[in-house]
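Sample pair:
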Amino acid sequence: SNHGCWLGSYEYAKQKAFAAAIKLGDCVYDLGANVGFYSLLASVLVGPEGRVFSFEPVPRNLKLLRRHLELNRVSNCSVWDVAVGCSVGTSSFDLGPNSSMGRLTVESNGTLSVRTVTLDRLVASGELPPPSLIKCDIEGGEYDALIGAADILAKHRPTVFLATHGPEVHKRCCRLL
């Protein structure tokens, strides 16, 4: 929906920094993958030996994400239809005013019920390899996702590309990191 995605100008400065941080063979987690812009970019950058894991809970976005991976013949990316947070289970999710602004909500009045995971649990169980890089843009849930990845952050020290949503979340994330 954004012509900058097709032209390569979408978030250009962020793209360049993201690309500079990824090496062949890396393992990248894309939290809040949306329709896959950064997942596709990471897929190319990590090469055939690398892996990308895309986390996205919104059904519309998941459909487009999978289609974009298929159209681009991506074979090194796995899609997880879950939200990443600080607990394992299910949570209420508010779809927001558009497909890129949905978020987990503490109230039970969200428009969708989604499965939630923690990155620490996925790595500890062997379901995922530890990440080299985590891109996290999840509309205010960034602190909870980082809490759920505290062991990974301490032990594996991945590069973190973080888009915080709100000054309080920003302060909490910076203190944690």
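The longest strand covers residues 89-94.
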